[in-house]
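Quick entry, no commentary yet.
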Amino acid sequence: MLLMNKFWVILFHTYFHKLKSKSFIITTIITVIILMGITNMNTIINFFNKDDKGITVGVIHSDEQLYALFQQNMKLIDNNIQLETYETEWESKDAVEKEKADGYLILSADEKGLPAGNYKANSIADSEVPTKLQQALQQTKVAIATSQLGLQPEQIDQLYSPVSFEKAALVESAKTEEELNQARGLVYILLFVIYFSVVMYGSMIAMEVATEKSSRVMEILVSSVSPVTQMFAKILGIALLSLTQFAVILVVGYASLKQNLATQQNGMFEYVGLSEVPIATFVYAFIFFMLGYFLFATLAAFLGSLVSRIEDVQQMITPMTLLIVAAFLIAMFGLGDPDTTFIKVTSFIPFFAPMIMFLRVGMLEIPLWEVSLSIGLLVATIFALAIFGARVYKGGVLLYGKSSSFKDIKKALQLTKE
């Protein structure tokens, strides 16, 4: 009973200490501001573009018919790009220097009567305008070339009309292409959430342990509370902190998204397709997030116990961070083809499963036994790592001095036996 009281004391001390810290408050505020910016992106863009006069491109040409056809194609591609004709290149250059035009195009025809262009501007770093000009010029060339071949407009439309091509899954329970696109967007976002959360909160646990060791607070704690109790109290305390932060972010994000859904439904949120995603996907996201957190949090706790200086924390947890990065990169690869053998195999590897099995669950209809097996292996690994980590933590908190290698794990285990 007394042991449990000490456990809850450390847990809530860790939770409230971090909750009131400036870094946590600032991080939460910045994240909320960024989230509100994303969900209100159309409104922000329209606000800054309300006084935008558009883009003006000067055109020098000697063939009115060619220019008229080019101008017509330019309006079809981007009506915001305004074309102004000039007699000489000197006038065009002067207009660019006086900021009356963003650049100018020298429009000409070769010996076959096909158009050619030469675009000039103060800087060609912006590739959007030249690309659209080139597209309009290409369409102009196609129209002239097909006309020279004697093709009628109906024949040209038939030639360039898109081919009919449909995709359908033979398995009845498989997701449709639309459902896959919607799931892919949501999984992409949630993978980032899992990745950054595990990295951030895992590092926070390691830093917490190292900070206490560097201030010699650990010696006082060890004399009154079991190191194992400390480790799990800190892990659960930080877990509670992360859930608190997520709750704030989700409430603000949902309220902002709901308020702006009418203006955003034709943008990125239609691709994400929140309304079409099954509730099970969100449930699996929570399950794999929490399991991934406990896996790497336990790892971070005993790695943090091996260092005595805060400066050594990042070096010690680098292998753990690389594992998370590797899982994230594999998951990004799997977004394009989640049914490959490589993705299947890695989804059962515990250190990769939180991201990759979640990826498969979100995008495919996979057997329940595969998900259960992956979760079972993940839970077993967490327990094994917790037992081993507790032993290392118990001796690691008594280690002082510079930590330069993982040989300190052996020293920590030896101290545990003493």
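second:
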Amino acid sequence: MNSDSKIYLAGHDGMVGSAIMHELHSKGYKNIITRALSELDLRRQQNVEEFFVSEKPDIVIVAAAKVGGIVANNTYRAEFLYDNLMIEANIINSAHQIGVEKLLFLGSSCIYPKNAPQPLKEEYLLTNTLEPTNEPYAIAKITGIKLCENYYRQYGDNFFSVMPTNLYGPHDNFNLQTSHVLPALIRKFHEAKTQNSPTVTVWGTGKVYREFLYVEDMANACVELLFSINAKDIYNSSISHINIGTGKDLLISELANLVAEIVQFKGTIIYDKSKPDGVYKKLLDVTRLNEFGWHEKTSLREGIEKSYKWFLENYK
């Protein structure tokens, strides 16, 4: 991989993809191919195959996915399974067909079993049942991991996967119907402050733990791993992917208090215990990532402050 490598970044216009794009540019990579959904529907096999034959990228980064929070995952179950299966299968197989030098697939920490030991080690994959609310999305992401692993095992393709923890930051989704917890909290507390509302309601008990990673840190980790490792470095260690996270978590109630403080909401926080919490704890073991020399750079407070600033400047 050098500065002239032709890189196809799938999902460049999402939160994850735009952060990876910025990181690549900062490292001197300018030969980056992108396509909007209106130009290339990644769910259509023929279209994807024709694109790969025409463009012949050297490196592929799969950041394209249908994503959402607990409500979207549980409501649009068929779409989350079908769309993500099609996107990843078409890209990975097309990359194999033209002989791409290296492919990086991004998954999600929801791939791990609901009651897996904490923190979540890479080898816990497929050791028990999944959390029901996001099972379709998790199954799709597990399939992507296993596609990369088995294209390596059968053909020697240099394809491997990373599993980021819960991400947040610029270009996040702040739609309360489909967003993840942190951007939803930012929007709720901001609107409550501007509307002088005395309370903000947070889903669940607030007594579950979550880990969060600023998306620009995640992008840095992805590009650093592209520089420094190959598929054989992962699979020869008897694992199928590398976790990307901070190795630190906090209660949702602590997160809500922190967001309220940053947004300067002075009212009362109410927890709606009739709403689902999801899994009790979902903390990634990042031992292997740290062994590769990577650690996060942005504290949670600093990241939320940056995210809120971006929200104020961009979200109407």
